């Protein structure tokens, strides 16, 4: 089973693209290291307070894939400098 998530977020403390990229690099690196998922910035690369992250996981069981993505979403929510606005899950 392949589960993908598109996560739109706001970074309110970012005052420049450099600030945004610093926050995103730290979050993306920690997600990749702590969870068995692929993650990348999909959209809004030139906006300094908004981003869209793509997260993909592959598992042999639908429940395991959903649990993995939910753990990643909870991890994203744990960062105070980032607010998750909209999340779209899609089974492939």
Description:
The protein has 92 residues and is of the alpha+beta class. The protein is 37% helix and 36% strand. The protein contains 2 helices and 4 strands. It has a 4-stranded antiparallel sheet with strand order 2-3-1-4. The chain is elongated.
* Count of β-strands: 4
Unreliable segments of 5+ consecutive residues = none
What does the largest sheet look like?
4 strands, antiparallel
Specify the overall morphology: elongated
Mean pLDDT: 93
How are the strands of the biggest sheet laid out side by side?
Answer: 2-3-1-4
Strand content: 35-45%
Would you tell me the structural class of the helices and strands?
Answer: alpha+beta
CA-atom Rg in angstroms: 13 Å
The number of helical runs is: 2
| Distance between the amino and carboxyl termini | 7 Å
Order of helices and strands: EHEEHE
Helix residue percentage: 25-40%
What's the arrangement of secondary structure elements?
Layout: E1 2-10, H1 17-34, E2 38-43, E3 50-58, H2 62-77, E4 83-91
Antiparallel strand pairs: 1-3, 1-4, 2-3
